[in-house]
Amino acid sequence: MIRRLVPRLAVPAVAAAMLAFASAASASVTPTVTPSSTAPLTAGATGNLGLDLKFSPSQGDSPKDLTLNLPPGLLSNAAINRGGCLKTVDIATTSCQIGSGTVHALLLGMIPVPTNVGFFLVPPPAAGDLAGLAVASNGDQIGTTAAITIRPSGNPAGVGATIHFVLPNTLDNIPLEIQEISSTFNGLRFPTSCPATPAQLTVSVDSYADATVKTAATPVPVTGCSALAFSPKYSINVARDASDKNVRVTTQITQAATESPSSAVTLGFPSDVFSASLKGLTNLCTTGPASGKCTPVGSVQAASPLYPTPLTGRAYLTGNVTNLKGLTLTLVFPQPFPLTLVGAVHLENLTTTFSGLPDIPLTHLTVTLNGGPAGLFSTLCTHISGVSTARLTDQNGDKTATVKTPFTETGCPAHGGGGGGTHGGSGKAGRPRIHAASFGGLRTRKPTLRFTVTAGTHRPGISSLAVKLPKGLNAVTKRTHGKRMVRHVSVKGAKLRSATVSHGALVIKLRKAARRALVRFGRGALSETHALAAKVRRAHVKSLRLTVVVRNAKGKRTTLHVKAKT
């Protein structure tokens, strides 16, 4: 349409219009953006969104760089045509068309040339872009391909889509002034949170004669968030590492594509089964994953119905070695979804809590955490069973789901050396095992101790323990009914009958024989000398030797020696 008008234009008119462009000293644009409908959108639904962009350029000027920042959760479907739109340009059919509209412009500053256009999803114009957006009329593209990107975590505008156009100001070297773009985008997925003040769609634009960026915004009201379904599923797989006898842990959260995504997730690992690996601190990332100097402790994979292929990333243990209470588990996805999800790690109860998750629908989110010397868990593979719990909150913040899932360690050796199994297999009887022994609070003379004890393979369960503390540590007792009782002692995986001191040893008796138990001596259970605290602070002592006498349900005693980290 536009090109058919060009041959009729006289050369003097062209020259006059170019002169007008050159003399427009105070040229600029003043954008406004209004939706074609003010009706609220239905949360999580798929529908169309109409926008009317007016630029009101001064005479001789035209908008140049146009950026649309969609609010978080307002997303286009990049998986249409089975992902083929991201591989091959198709502006001749409707397979990749995601909208339509009309561009209102003035040719030579005086001839209206309204042009009907289509908006097409095309391959990304640059590495790292999510996709491209082509504006075409009658099979011909107008201008350059716009870049569609996903704003990264931490962006002030929130995680969401941004579209950046470079608008033309000439047509076959003839000046063109774009006045208005009326558009409708089809098949958008609407946000799933309904704040009291609606999120806004913002427009930023400069002009060819003025680099000053002008902005405009319009609210995007959403309703019906509370009516959205929220029934996430949670599963966990605990399996032996290929390279050692420890276990790796894989958690997976699944949801239907039409549900509200989660805004917060807490994953809990039963501490009577799992024990944190302090050796894993050798992979502590103190410089940040972006430095490229950190070693991952696991991996992450996510699938979204709005993208044709799964997203894969890496998991890092982050924080500062001097503040174990400030440890975080950071999941990093590369472009085109530059997301960084940070979860607070609580070693005392083995939970990780992620908050502020983006409003992006995921049908599954899978996190695999390594075990072994450099992993997060020092748990030995022993056929142990347990229950893991996930607590999830929806995007709108008004629904919470607590999901518990049972598991049994798999791939464990049937006999010998694995720390003792609970069932299955034949072979030699094994000795009990002590692992994940560690002290805490020694620098400040507020000592704590924890370790996990496992019954021997094909041996009866554990009935009692006698712990002989290293020099510099003593049990704090209170005499009750003639016995020296120790408080602040707890056992997970079994029920504690008593904790006493007898003949210089700290004796733990269980109400019922157990295959495995996590023993904790909390603050107030132990006392420490000034000399030991000073040695620990000067790093002269990195481990202390424990002697534990394990007695099984048949009365057999086994003496174990173990070095506990300080």
Mind summarizing the main beta sheet?
14 strands, antiparallel
* Overall pLDDT score: 88
User: What's the total number of strands?
Assistant: 40
Count of separate DSSP helical elements: 3
Helix content: under 10%
Shape: elongated
Radius of gyration from the CA trace? 32 Å
What share of the residues does DSSP label as strand, in percent?
over 45%
Structural class: mainly beta
Cα separation of the termini = 79 Å
Descriptive labels:
single chain, mainly beta, 14-stranded antiparallel β-sheet, eleven-stranded antiparallel β-sheet, 3 helices, 40 strands
Task: Describe the fold and architecture.
With 566 residues, the protein is mostly beta strands. The strands form 7 sheets. Strands 1, 3, 4, 5, 6, 7, 8, 9, 10, 11, 12, 13, 14 and 15 form a 14-stranded antiparallel sheet that branches. An 11-stranded antiparallel sheet has the order 17-18-25-20-21-22-23-24-19-26-27, with no helix packed on it. Helix content is 4%, strand content 47%. It has 3 helices and 40 strands.
Quick description:
With 566 residues, the chain is mainly β.
List the helices and strands and how they pair.
Blueprint: H1 2-5, H2 11-22, E1 32-35, E2 41-42, E3 46-54, E4 63-69, E5 97-107, E6 111-112, E7 115-122, E8 131-137, E9 140-141, E10 146-150, E11 161-166, E12 170-171, E13 174-189, E14 200-207, E15 214-219, E16 222-223, E17 233-240, E18 247-254, E19 262-268, E20 298-303, E21 311-320, E22 323-332, E23 340-346, E24 351-355, E25 364-369, E26 385-394, E27 400-408, E28 433-440, E29 448-454, E30 462-468, E31 473-475, E32 477-480, E33 483-486, E34 489-492, E35 496-502, E36 505-514, E37 516-521, E38 526-528, H3 530-537, E39 543-552, E40 557-565
Parallel strand pairs: 2-16
Antiparallel strand pairs: 1-3, 3-13, 4-11, 4-14, 5-6, 5-7, 5-13, 7-8, 8-9, 8-10, 10-11, 12-13, 14-15, 17-18, 18-25, 19-24, 19-26, 20-21, 20-25, 21-22, 22-23, 23-24, 26-27, 28-29, 29-37, 30-36, 30-39, 31-38, 32-33, 34-37, 35-36, 39-40
